């Protein structure tokens, strides 16, 4: 399906045998893809035309990918950054995320997995400036400002944590459809998350409480054994 406006992906990778199949795969998905082979070109490209997602290799010939990540954030880049690297240590993962990365994928990786990660990042960090999930006239209309990562009930902001926002954003993008527990865990936490899935239940519980306290008419409904669904709206919707 053609997108009215293709989302832009910047691939920063100095190894051609990795970059070429990656670029071809993403272009087949309908993305507008630009490839550069070093850190300075990446920063110049982002300055000229911001991307929705940056796929960033750490082992670049001029300077480290973490430095690219840091400089891009300092320059005001607000899109998603996914680090890909052969450095598999947990320390590198933590450091990368501290530098402003949104996700981390260890080499070697499958192209299908990378595609899924890119889609997840786009759901979390891009989209229309404001998504209205129901009729926002009067009290109780839920509005999600994706770019600013803020949620409003009518004119009042609902204070959410990062994880609460991401869960709600995914549920709102799939309004009235069940989103599985597995997908929420993979998209919001990480598909390699080794903690208890009770983390999701606690986050859902807090999210429900905050929405209800603000008079939001949409409800997060649990579908036993499957997942969760966002449903409902103002009576006049």
Summarize the structure.
GO terms for molecular function: phosphorelay response regulator activity; transcription cis-regulatory region binding. This protein has 237 residues and is of the alpha/beta class.
Our count of helices gives 8
Q: What is the beta-strand fraction?
A: 15-25%
Give the overall shape: elongated
Order of helices and strands: EHEHEHEHEHEEEEHEHHEE
Relative helix content: 25-40%
Sheet with the most strands?
5 strands, parallel
- CATH architecture title of the largest domain: 3-Layer(aba) Sandwich
| SSE class | alpha/beta
The number of E-state strands comes to: 12
- Numbering strands along the chain, what is their spatial order in the largest sheet? 2-1-3-4-5
Low-confidence stretches: 127-139
**CA-atom Rg in angstroms:** 19 Å
What's the pLDDT, averaged over the residues?
A: 79
Q: How many distinct domains?
A: 2
CATH topology of the largest domain: Rossmann fold
Characterization of this structure:
The chain has helices spanning 16-28, 39-48, 65-74, 90-98, 111-125, 162-173, 181-189, 198-213, and strands spanning 8-12, 32-36, 53-57, 80-85, 103-106, 131-132, 142-145, 150-153, 156-158, 179-180, 219-223, 227-231. The two termini are 30 Å apart. Mean pLDDT is 79; it is low at 127-139. It folds into 2 domains: 8-125, 3-Layer(aba) Sandwich (Rossmann fold), CATH 3.40.50; 131-231, Arc Repressor Mutant, subunit A (Orthogonal Bundle). The protein contains 8 helices and 12 strands.
